[in-house]
User: Fold this.
Amino acid sequence: MDRRWPFVLFMIVLIALHLFMRVGLGMEFWAPDLLTIGLLLAARRMPAGMAAGLGLLLGLIRDSVNISTFGSDMVVMTIMGYLGSRSRDYFVGDSFFFLAIYLFLGKWLHDALYFVVGRAIGTRDAVSSLLVEAPIAAAYSTLAGLIAYSAYRAFARER
Assistant:
């Protein structure tokens, strides 16, 4: 079997779990951000253009649920996909520690960019949003991403 199909299946499962928890179960902010985590994981395996396209698609999926800031997450996820793909050129490694830092910083950057692009600057406290809420959400999503990626590696017999 081709090596990319288990990862494609993993991405589909992450997207389905994200939508199931956020929309189906109504968990909203209590659910980890599996779309951003999935994008960050996939971007390291893809060329920059394809990763940006995947970010655009995942941003469209997220924006279709939240119509009040439609388009903001498409822009942010496109940037995140591109940057995630380019990070492969600067940071070589696939250790558990590196992956944890990569996912944490990527999710935190996503939240910071979304705060700026989503025009939430005048409506919310920047310090509270960026220095308290965003790191907590990043740590929570990173933990969920590490668990999911570890399960994927065990299932796909990847090292």
The radius of gyration is 15 Å. Residues 1 and 156 are 11 Å apart (CA to CA).
